[in-house]
Design a protein that fits this description.
By secondary structure, this protein is of the alpha/beta class. It has one domain. The protein has one helix and five strands; from the N terminus they run E-E-E-H-E-E.
Amino acid sequence: MTSFTSILDTNELPPANSKIVYQYRDDANELCEVSSFLSDASEKDVIRAVDSLRAQANDDHHVFIEHFRLRDEDRAYCVILGS
């Protein structure tokens, strides 16, 4: 589990019921992806979902939610995190 709660640093949030994904490189430098879903898309819900992504990725370093990018192929929102 991550040690720090994610910090929202954007006002542009994905809509309710959206799939959000986080892409990262693992210890073997392989590209990996984890996903979560939003329920009501409130700020609290977005932070909860991103905390889940970070926990799945074992990422304690990137805590700032900088923005989301809509992916055309599956309509998922890629979260962009900063440190």
